[in-house]
Design goal:
66% of the residues lie in helices and 0% in strands. The protein is an all-alpha fold and 235 residues long.
Length: 235
């Protein structure tokens, strides 16, 4: 009986001395893995969303009617030779050249830019960041005011963001919001600019930028994300 009592006392002491583990406790390594998975899921969602936008634009380009070919000029009937007073042979007027139909160059160029943009997205999805940055820059240079110009600038910013170069990322996000403020990528660019500012510890400006996202684009998906992010940022 004494041995059992001593064992019970030792067991009780061991239980009392061992630290209690909260059921909500998550090891730091698991937290890091969860964060990485969340970032990958966000990137995949963004890629799928951009591909949907791209497919829609390609469909509109392909369904646009091709320009009507220029009318073909018909040759005028030959005129009667003028009477001559010498022994030379009479001459006839030369027939005008036939006009060639023009090719729809604008449609071909637009389709080429759309294909280059798709390839740039695929490079980014394969983590070939430097190659995708050059490809997006080529897309922008090909048509700096076209439908994909704001997308190209935004994704150049994304390549810098994923590389941890937040200063250059902010610079390109700012270009999107300044030069293409009414285009589809402007809300995303402003939101990511706020996240980049947060990464540089400029929390005050990050909060201000998130507020601007909500005010300027209240019904956009980035506005909903900005509201959630505002509750998370602490001074």
């Amino acid at each position: 009986m004494k041995k059992l009592a001593v064992a019970a006392i030792l067991l009780t002491a061991a239980c009392a001395s061992s630290p209690s583990v909260s059921p909500d406790y998550v090891p730091p390594a698991q937290q890091a893995n969860d964060t990485k998975v969340a970032e990958l899921q966000t990137t995949l969602t963004e890629l799928l969303e951009r591909l949907d936008v791209l497919n829609d634009r390609i469909a509109r380009l392909e369904s646009a009617p091709a320009p009507a070919p220029a009318p073909v000029a018909t040759a005028a009937p030959p005129t009667a030779p003028a009477p001559t007073t010498d022994n030379r042979e009479p001459t006839t007027a030369a027939a005008p050249a036939v006009a060639q139909p023009q090719q729809p160059q604008a449609a071909l160029v637009g389709a080429k830019i759309a294909e280059d943009y798709r390839n740039a997205l695929m490079l980014y999805g394969k983590s070939r960041v430097a190659d995708s940055r050059r490809a997006f820059q080529d897309v922008f240079d090909a048509d700096p005011t076209g439908e994909l110009a704001d997308n190209a600038l935004f994704w150049i910013g994304e390549t810098y963001f994923s590389a941890g170069d937040y200063s250059n990322a902010i610079r390109y996000y700012q270009r999107v919001t300044n030069e293409f403020g009414d285009q589809n990528k402007a809300p995303d660019a402003m939101f990511k600019m706020a996240i980049a500012l947060e990464r540089t510890s400029d929390l005050s400006l990050a909060r201000k930028t998130l507020q601007q996202v909500i005010e300027r684009y209240p019904y956009s998906t980035p506005a909903a994300s900005a509201k959630s992010e505002l509750t998370r940022i602490k001074f």
